[in-house]
Structure formats: structure tokens, C-alpha cells
Amino acid sequence: MQGRDNDWDEIEAFRDTIRRIARERIEPLAAELDRTGGPPQRQYDIFRETGLIGLGLPEEYGGGGGDLMMQAIAVEEMARVCSASALTMSLGWGTLDPLVQFGDEVLKRQIIPAVAAGEKKTAWCITEPQGGSDMAAMTTRAVREGDSWVLNGVKRFITNAGWADWYLVVARTEDREFGIFMVSREDPGISFGANEKKMGLRGSPTADVNFNDCRIPADRVVGRPTGGLSRMSQSLAHSRPVIAAQALGVAQGALDQAVAYVKARMSMGQSLSRYQMVRGQIGDMAIRIEGARALLYRAIGQALRRSPDARALASMAKAMCSDVAMSVTVDAVQLHGGYGYLEDYPVERMMRDAKITQIYEGTNEIQRLIVAKHVLQD
Ligand SMILES: Cc1cc2nc3c(=O)[nH]c(=O)nc-3n(C[C@H](O)[C@H](O)[C@H](O)COP(=O)(O)OP(=O)(O)OC[C@H]3O[C@@H](n4cnc5c(N)ncnc54)[C@H](O)[C@@H]3O)c2cc1C
User: How high is the pLDDT of residue 378?
Assistant: First the structure.
């Protein structure tokens, strides 16, 4: 389904469809997924069955061809009830973006259709133990040996590590050059660390990926074996609005919960929703969410138009939506009083899930550096 610029009826109909799937099928599983940890196999199966798993992949490779607006709306609605599920649904779209944009046809045909069909899962491997923000300091190496590339190094905090079938890996190929490689879980020399115990997003697996003389065929390099960092930066700029949408969804979900709670809860003889201080807080949460949504949709509009401002706007939207997610979820817990501190109420999980959106896909400090560079034009 394609999202045309002003076709809001189509977009809102699409939103209703996703909301129904989220409410009926994903929300009932959310608390249990958080409690038991991943991998989110049942959720993945639902996304495969409904075709959502391939939504953000090109139609020519069996995907849904949903543009960035469709992807953001699907993720927003899913994260409104379960952030880990929203990430599970969308990870393949962003992970394969460098392959879609820069890969050669044979490699695309080998990998994308199976991911779009929900037969294979993906992960992307950029971050390393010594730092994620400084991509140029990466030490994982890929060395050409005859008809193979041989990879050595460790990637940290990798979503879907051990669960995914395909790993998009950024590795140093020369002193100042990096390449992007597709590594299969079946390749010799790849192994996985233990699942990390996290504050939030517990339903999504996160672990180290180790490469010890990991040998892959030479044709698994994505495009040229140089220029990988700039290609990754382009792909990250493309996928950042989707992470912003995840944050926005968490914020909206927390507001939904807070509204229901303050209407039902009585204090000093009347509903909490009648107190001016509570009403002010609810109003303020809604203003922050709508402000973040407006910025996100503007960023997406500029990305669809391929505007030169798109990268900076994507960073603005990622920082703003995730900051709003954090502040709104904290407010939602506060409005629940002591009950907000219990696992029995979704706002407790939402507050923990909000935090990661300020950290991954480039921390919000890094987003501010990108924005400042654009504004200062240096
Ligand atoms: C649950 C989870 C899932 C993740 N999934 C993936 C994944 O699938 N693939 C992947 O590759 N990575 C993944 N990450 C890693 C994530 O992207 C990194 O954690 C993030 O980029 C930050 O890197 P770091 O943790 O090494 O922090 P650092 O880079 O060490 O930063 C530490 C702090 O210093 C600040 N800082 C760093 N440099 C500067 C600077 N120049 N100016 C100002 N402040 C600065 C940062 O903003 C941060 O506050 C995941 C992380 C988590 C927790």
C-alpha cells in the first residue's frame, strides 16, 4: 500500500486496520511477553500472517511497498500497545534498507523475498563494546581472502541476535574504509552471547554477536567494500522516523491508559478527571504528543520529497518523540499513583520501554549534534 502525500483518508483507514490488529491480537500478549522475555515468536507469526512483516520492503521483492508514512503509522499503532512487538515487526525494513538501496540484484533476490514473506529474520550489527556513537572507531575487520571475506570482531547490543537468520554487519575493510556484509546464522565462525537482562523492551532479544574467522562468500558484500559508513548514515536517517514513531506510539499508549484511569478513579468524592491540576497535566501530555507527531509527519513528508532537510528533520523527530515518550510515560505513572508503580498496569512497562528510544538508533545527544551541524551549516 502506498501513502500518497495528501491522501489522509487512505492513511487513516490504514491506521484503523493496524489499530484493530494491535488491540485484538498484540495487546493481550504484551504483559506476558514483557514478563517472560523474548523471543516474540507468537507476535512474529501474527505479523507474518497479516502480511505486516513485509510492509516496509519493496513490492518487487515480495514486500508490501509501504512508504515511510505507512511504516511510521503501523509502528506507532503497534507501539501504542507493545513496543517490543512494534520493533519486531519493523526491524527487517530498516535492517535491509542498505541492501535495498546499495546491494546487487543477486544478493537482493537471495535475501529480501524470504524476509518479506516472514520466513527469515534479520538483525543489524553496528555497535561494538567500546562505543556505539563513534562509528568510525569500529574495530571489527573484514579481510578479503580469495573468494571469501573473513570477519573478526564483536558486535554489542544486537537486537534479534541469535534469533535472526541474516545479519547486516558493518566492518572495517581498510584503515579508513568500511564495508557492509550479509552474514548468515549458518556461516562458520559466527556465535552469540547470552540474552541481556534489560530495563525495558524485554520481549525483544538483545545480545552480542561474535565473529571468529567467520568466512563468507565474496559476493555477500553490499555494494562496494568501501564507503560503508556514509551508506549506513543514509540508511539510519531513513529508519530514524520509524524509531521516532515507536516512541510516539509509547507516548500515545501511556496517555490512553492515563485518560482511562483518571476517569475511573475517585478521590475526595469525585473522579480524578474533574480536578483542574489533573486536567492540566492531561492537556499538557496531549500537547506534547501532538507537537511530536506534527514534527514526525513533517520529517516524513520531507523524506518522501527527498528534501535536503530530511536528515536533520529525522534527527529532530527522533529526539523530540523519544523525549516526549519519556516525559509522558513518567506523567502517566504519576497519575496512576501507587498503582502506576505495579507491573499490573501497562504504564509501568511503557515507562521502561520509553527509555530505550532516547538511546538507540543514535542517542539523542548524537541527534542534537546532527541538527546543530545542519543549522550551523558547518
Ligand atoms: C535494547 C538495545 C537494542 C539495541 N539494538 C541495536 C542493534 O540492533 N544494532 C546495533 O548496532 N546497536 C544496537 N543498540 C546499540 C545502541 O544503538 C547504542 O547503545 C547507542 O548507539 C549508544 O552507544 P553506546 O551504548 O556505546 O554509548 P556511547 O556511544 O558510549 O555513549 C555514552 C553516552 O555518551 C554520549 N556521547 C557519546 N559521544 C558523544 C559526543 N560526541 N557528544 C556528546 N555526547 C556523546 C552518548 O549520547 C551517551 O549518552 C541497541 C542498544 C540497546 C540498549
Answer: 82
Average pLDDT over residues 94-101: 97
How far, rounded to the nearest angstrom, does the alpha carbon of residue 270 sit from its chain's CA centroid?
Answer: 41
Q: What is the mean pLDDT of the chain?
A: 96
- Active-site residue, selected from the candidate residues 10, 49, 361, 365: 361
Is 361 a known active-site residue?
yes
User: Residue 92's domain is classified under what CATH number?
Assistant: 1.10.540.10
Cβ of 133 below 6 Å from ligand 1? yes
Does residue 115 have its Cβ closer than 6 Å to ligand 1?
no
Under 8 Å CB-to-CB from 127, ≥6 apart: which residues?
155, 156, 157, 158
**Closest ligand 1 atom, CA of 155?**
11
Residue closest via CA to ligand 1's atom 48 equals 363
- Per-residue pLDDT, averaged over 29-40, amounts to 96
67 pLDDT exceeds 90?
yes
User: Are 254 and 330 within one domain?
Assistant: yes
**For the whole model, what pTM was predicted?**
0.97
Expressed in angstroms and rounded, the spacing between residue 362 Cα and the centre of ligand 1 is: 6
CATH of the domain at 183: 2.40.110.10
